[in-house]
Amino acid sequence: MTSLTYRYVALTDTGLRRPANQDSGYASPRLLVMADGMGGAAAGDIASAEALHIIRQLDRDLDVDAMSALQQAVTAANARLGELIRSDPAVEGMGTTVEAMLWDGSKLAYAHLGDSRTYRLRDGVLEQISTDHTFVQSLVDEGKISRDEARVHPHRSLLLRALLGRDDNEADYNWLQPMLGDRYLLCSDGLSDMVGDNIIEMALSAETIDLAATELIRLALEAGGYDNVTVVIAEFVEKGTDPDEHLSSADGQPQLVGAAAGPARPRTAAVTNPKTTESQAIDPEEIRYAPRPPSRRRWLRWTALGVVLAVILGVAGAVAYNWSQNQYFVASYQGKVTIFKGVQADIPGVTLQHVDEVTDVELSTLPDFRRKQVRDGIEASSRAEAEQIVDNLDQVAIKPTPTPTPTATETATATATVFRR
Ligand code: CA
User: Fold this and answer.
1) Contact assessment for residue 255 and residue 10, using Cβ atoms and an 8 Å cutoff
2) Distance from first CA to last CA of the chain, Å, rounded?
3) What is the DSSP annotation of 190-213?
């Protein structure tokens, strides 16, 4: 039998309607992962990024067979989400789908959980390998609706299973036996909801997998780009084949994309302010960080306000100042999460805040949303509350190379808990 290896590519796009990318994707010579995060505006990116960071540890240590290692990694990722949810009620309800494949040199250990999909293109024919863990799929299975009807069903986003940090949502595990020339596609529903299987089949047949990836993303955007869209593709070739230097995987380096890769594409103003047209779109991050020349009128206004406040302060004097000095807030200082004493106010000539403690939590290790919150400042009514906020942030910080600590596989049967994404 021919010994096989594979070429790979991972690509993502925020899409045209979502403010941020909650998908995460990863491809390396041994591992392929795709995770589509969910759970309110804030936590989906945390969920997919955290799960992916745990699962990609499989690229480092492997002292058991590929299937056991994969099961342990998914279980560890689930435990991590559970931990985060317990430590920060704000992210309650977050979760992620998981598509993961671990190559042992001759076959693939495969995990599937949720409604992200895996397709296989063999001899020009596309086949969906995964079965969606969705309510509409259960209707398809019962013969109540067709696959085409499922794709446009109003309740198509109701998931029956996902990685939620609980012990009642098991993934499906299977061994897959690739053949020479096979292409495997792992994708988020941002592709499969927007683009039909026959079109996916055609695009996935492109000359190279890199071209296929860009074409699939383009098709999803052209169809409306309603959701984040992520594709991870592997193509099986004979072992020892010279790497095609035109392919992105020719360098053998892992590819990490989406929420897990850090800052997503800038949020569009169209989402923040629906009245803003596309042509007027201003990146709110830019507003916050780009230095702007002070306008004369603004300067006058601040001066007037300053005078008024000076009078007020003069009258209220020590009372107001003392009050302000019993307040705290958490913000950033020199790239670190920092506890400030005082209140956040920009009043010329009046200092109502000072650094109380610079913690060792690096701002850069926080998931996008948390980092943004810290930059905006998080108010606390006491020193203890500020410390609690820092603890919570520390919990969600992405630690360098955490060693997965798999727990015993929970064997609870999956109950059909329906929740909306
Ligand atoms: Ca999605």
Assistant:
1) yes
2) 44
3) HHHTTS-HHHHHHHHTSSSHHHHH
Nearest residue to 84 via CA among 34, 47, 45, 48: 47
| DSSP helix/strand/coil, 414 | coil
Tokens of 13: 């796009």
Alpha carbon of 203 to ligand 1 centroid (Å): 20
Q: Alpha helices of 185-295 — where are they, by DSSP H?
A: 189-192, 197-204, 209-222, 269-272, 284-289
Q: According to the model, what pLDDT value does residue 396 have? A: 79
Neighbours of ion ligand 1 (CB under 5 A): 36, 188-190, 227
Over residues 304-319, the pLDDT tens digits come to 777 777 777 676 666 7
- Ligand 1 geometric centre to CA of 78 (Å): 19
The CATH number that domain 4-265+282-288 falls under is 3.60.40.10
Instruction: Report d(CA 54, CA 389) in Å as an integer.
Output: 24
What is the rounded average pLDDT of the residues 189-209? 96
For 107, the token pair is: 């076959």
Task: Give phi and psi for 171, each to the nearest 5.
Answer: -80, 160
User: What was the pLDDT predicted at 322?
Assistant: 72
State how far the Cα of 111 lies from the Cα of 170, in Å rounded to an integer.
Answer: 10
The CA 190 to ligand 1 mean position distance, Å, reads 5
Q: How many CB atoms within 10 Å of residue 167? A: 15
Which amino acid makes up residue 327? Answer: Q
Distance 299 CA to ligand 1 centre (A): 46
For the chain, the domains span 4-265+282-288, 325-396
pTM of the full structure: 0.64
Distance in Å, CA 288 to ligand 1 centroid:
29
pLDDT tens for 162-194 read 999 998 889 999 999 999 999 999 999 999 999
Alpha helices in 267-331 (DSSP H): 269-272, 284-289, 296-316, 318-324
Q: How far is the CA of 259 from the centre of ligand 1 (A)?
A: 12
The residue with greater pLDDT, 403 or 253, is 253
Q: Distance, CA 341 to ligand 1 centroid (Å)?
A: 41
Distance 387 CA to ligand 1 centre (A): 35
